[in-house]
Amino acid sequence: MIENPSLxxxxxxxxRFNTDSSKLEIYNGNQWWEIDTTSTYEQSGGTRGVVGGxxxxxxxxxxxxxxxxxxxxxxxxxxxxxxxRASLSASSSRSRGIFLGGDTPSxxxxxxxxxxxxxxxxxxxxxxxxxxxxxxxxxxxxRIVKAGGEAPAPARTIVDAEFVxxxxxxDGxxxxxLTxxxxxxxxxxxxxxxxxxxxxxxxxxxxxxxxxxxxTxxxxxxxxxLxxERNTGGGCSNAVTGFVTDGGPAxxxxxxxxxxxxxxxxxxLSSTRTALASMSSETRAVFAGGYSPSSPHAETNIIDYQQxxxxxxxxxxxxLxxxxxxxxxxxxxxxxxx
Length: 338
What we know:
The chain is mainly beta. The protein has one helix at 40-44, and strands spanning 15-18, 23-27, 32-34, 48-56, 59-68, 76-80, 89-92, 96-103, 107-115, 123-127, 136-139, 143-150, 157-165, 173-177, 186-189, 193-201, 204-213, 221-225, 234-237, 241-245, 250-255, 263-268, 277-280, 284-288, 300-307, 315-324, 328-331. The protein is globular and about 65 Å long. It folds into two domains: 1-37, no CATH class; 46-337, Kelch-type beta propeller (Neuraminidase), CATH 2.120.10. Strands 6-5-4-27 form a four-stranded antiparallel β-sheet, with no helix packed on it. Strands 7-8-9-10 form a four-stranded antiparallel β-sheet, with no helix packed on it. The protein has a four-stranded antiparallel β-sheet with strand order 11-12-13-14, with no helix packed on it.
């Protein structure tokens, strides 16, 4: 059979059947990508959430927990990070989870990876350009972008964003800059864009929201503002809607595809806490661990969840295997994966 060339250039979102590979492909505006026809349920029995790293005086921990976000119940031990650390960041594809940077308690640029559908210890992936302490991180399944974070004195805060390609191991590469340098920001996103929400840079707290476009590298652009200044919380989203909280305990709801300001949903976490882990499925937002911002800063093992379509308060999901604080979460069903 003679195959004639296309009469016109494909537009972003076009789909074709590749007769050589016998696979469906989608055009992202730059190149053709195979369409993943597997599901998170086929790979791990449902959307799996993973929590890793923890601050425990006098030194950080290396433990990793996991849970099935499609159900409720207590988390189970997954394995250990390659380096014990806290205040790290994390995101994932459908198959591979990545933990970036952290505090050992000195600043650390280690990148680890795990296979989400199995259990076991993390393995070395490469190194961050900048440490990953208090960075905002999100993925579209192909790339993970890590933005902002804490730097050594005298800078203290960075404006830079970097990325890694999830399917291959290697060091971080430059992506672009935030509109404002900051740390302790929260991230949500879709397959096309990452939103960096709030943050802190002494002496200012921020309510600004920036966004990056995954398919290109370059600087962030203004998206809008949160309903209030927020930092050191968490962000969860499916491909359409996101929740952002500073653990205060109220949350903002964000529509990812449109620009503009957010509003407080009035939905509260079950307890006021900060430095918590964030995970999501196509239908649920899940926040886990954290610690009370008031003295004596008690750590917690609480897991809360809320349906993205709901307007009510967060509900009890279960408990982590131990108290986690200054931790990070990922899943194989978050909004960046579609």
